[in-house]
Specification:
about 425 residues; alpha/beta; binds pyridoxal-5'-phosphate; PyrdxlP-dep_Trfase_small; Aspartate Aminotransferase, domain 1; 7-stranded mixed beta sheet; Aspartate Aminotransferase, domain 2; 3 domains; pyridoxal phosphate; 3-stranded antiparallel beta sheet
Amino acid sequence: MEKSYEIPYPELGSVLGEQEIGVLTRLVNSGENLSGGRCREEFERCFREYLGVPHALSVTSGTVALEIAIRLLDLNDGDEVIATPQTYKASVQPLLNYPVKVRFCDVEPNTLNLDPGHFASLITSRTKAVILVHYGGLPCDMDAIMPIARRHGITVIEDCAHALGADYRGRKPGALADIGCFSFHSSKNITTLGEGGMITLFDRTLAERADRIRSNDADAVYREQARAIGESTSAHPWMMHPGFAFTHDCSAIRYGGTNATLAEPNAAVGTVQLAKLDRLVSRRADIAGAYTEVLKQYSGVRMHGGPEPVRHGHHLYTFFADPADGILRDRLVSRLDALGVQMQLRYFPMHLLAEWRARGHHAGECPVAERMWFEQQVNLPCHPGMTDWQVDQVASRLDTVLGQEVRGTPIAAGTARKTKGWTQ
Ligand SMILES: *Cc1c(COP(=O)(O)O)cnc(C)c1O
């Protein structure tokens, strides 16, 4: 039997309530076409306004958003893509379908985000794109990354699956580079009833291509479009259909397209959830604050973050145990586990997954990402559905366990030796 925890690691990232049930009931009772697109357009409009981007296209998952974003790169044999290894596999998985060389870029030890210095060193004349993740909801150092990418003409894809609700110097992830990909899976900061995603773009041509791909149209190079059809004497009235004009007057089909459009109930719930986003993220921030209050009193642990004044999306609550300071991560985690606090390690380094090792990737390629994952990372439960009692218990049990770790012997909760102030 699976062990049950008093404070389990959350399966769910967002909470659904009466309002969501209300819009669903109205929608179903209305008899409207649930593939019609009215709610989808409304959700996309709200998302564009929230982010401040010209184009936002909803799709059926974050994975599909990334697949389409990567499709837009027109990758050819021998092209290179730089990517973070510290992520969920969907960020890089679509690259397995292309004859490209992937260069995994190491991360910074305090943020687990792409290391701008290492990024710069991996660029070659074949580099087409970089895929980065705002890890756990903490925005990457875009002021360092973007000038490097621009200088080399590299497309920057932001995987924003963790970063909805975060802010980077007054701008939002998904609006910081070329293409943003979001997930509304149940585990994320908002959800569109279990699955869903969004692609955000600045470039109109790319947005049109993405729109065709997601809605069963061919992504193709169109010739001077359909000029002749209306004029042709042989044209039947049905030939005036715009689809006919398009599909019969294009060359160089890049991709056959698919149906990845978000259904109306999902989109309707997305609009409600987006309106609640700030409240959901501030609840996450309060929980994170309670844990940080405990951690900052101990040496041997480090917070997830940098000196930058950014707003963290708090999708994950991550901190680091430092073995050099005598805090052994695995022992810490098993002691928390014994006290009923479940921990999950997030995101095994991508370059060490079997499918990437089969492509020649190996241990030692990204030493920081490896060290942080194998030795130092800890994630605590942090989601807006947690009760105050659960949050207090995680904080006090963490205090207890850290007290034991610092002294090496079990001591009573709340009396742990506090060794260090931590400032940020
Ligand atoms: C969840 C997640 C995805 C994939 O999103 P789905 O909607 O589950 O397909 C991609 N990247 C990261 C970093 C994620 O956490």
